[in-house]
Amino acid sequence: MPEKLTIESFLPLTDILPLVDVRSPKEFTEGHIPGAVNIPLFSDDERAAVGIRYKQGGNENAVLLGLEIVGPKLAGFAKEAKRLASKKEILVHCWRGGMRSASMAWLFETAGLKARTLDGGYKAYRRFIRQQFSREAKMIVLGGYTGSGKTDVLKVLEKSGEQFLDIEGIAKHKGSAFGHLGQEPQPGNEQFENNLADAWRKFDFKRTIWVEDESRMLGRCGIPDPLFQKMRNSVLLKIIVPKAEREKRLVKEYGELEPEGLLQSLKKIEQRLGGLATKQAREALELGNVKKVAGIILFYYDKSYHHGNESRNPKNIIEIDVEKDEPVKTAEMLRELVSSFKIKT
Predict the structure, then answer these.
(1) CB–CB of 218/167 below 8 Å?
(2) Are strands 163-165 and 217-218 parallel, antiparallel or unpaired?
């Protein structure tokens, strides 16, 4: 009989053993445990057909249809599992931890593997990760106006041994109306939460976690409320980088991109930017003057960022002047500042 594990026991094993999600392709695409491989017991159409049979003829008839569908696939399922399980151990889950995962785990064990299933299935996993964002954590938020190079500073800190929750990297979005440019396609919101939780659970919560100051939404991905509130209530180190330095960074980041993408992003903020400023930005873009476009956009985003921080406790905001856009030097300065006990998390 395959062993059934709680989510607390199951999840750490996903780091060392292959994980098979036996739900339908559509279910898997909408959201899955990071690292899982989809070996669907039923295709999307087959799952729908079994559901209809259950409603019309009851459980017994649905099971019989399921057996008819699955029968010819069993050998293929077993071969795929054995290919994945080099250590002859495998993890399996479905939606609720019921018949689909139990049946597949039985098949895998029959084929010579040690299989473990997740009690409560993917549903239990989703409930568990939402709770994890509420756990106590020491956090420092790095803020600053658009173009300050905050992400690069945080990546330097990460290389030096600090813990960095890269929300923008996980969301595949930089947060602004231009945040999707040059990025890979975004995950759906459910998968974003799963990927975020996967990074979150691996931190040492006795140590500080660094994170970049973000709005709640990054494109179509929303930061879970408990985590967002934790970010808003934490110490904010706001680096003040000269506008000229920030303009240079934006020119470097966006200057090689297709103008059409920049134009589409300008349209998204046209109402808030104002008709005249939008017209000037478009004309500058048509002339290839990305520096002027950057200056116009920064004027808008600087006001927006200031307004976004008005709800923070002023006592939690520490402004730090930075003369040059030099992420390595800035990271070193921030580490010294925090380690000298001037900052308490």
Answers:
(1) yes
(2) unpaired
Dihedral sign, CA of 186, 187, 190, 191? negative
End-to-end CA distance of the chain: 48
Catalytic residue list contains 221: no
pLDDT score for 256? 80
Q: Hunting for tokens 């339908």 — which residue is that?
A: 24
| Structure confidence by residue, pLDDT tens digits, 50-88 | 888 877 877 777 778 777 888 789 989 999 999 999 999
At 4, give phi and psi (nearest 5°). Answer: -105, 125
d(CA 97, CA 82): 21
**Spatial CA neighbour of 108 closest among 140, 76, 154:** 76
In angstroms, the CA 305 to CA 299 distance is 10
Stated pTM of the model: 0.90
Token pair 């409560």 is at which residue? 120
Tokens of residue 260, six digits? 């059409």
Of 62, 65, 94, 236, the catalytic one is 94
Burial class (CB in 10 A: 0-12, 13-18, 19+), 69: middle
Structure tokens at 210: 């660094």
pLDDT at position 343 is: 59
CB 22 within 8 A of CB 118: no
Instruction: Work out the average pLDDT over 29-43.
Output: 96
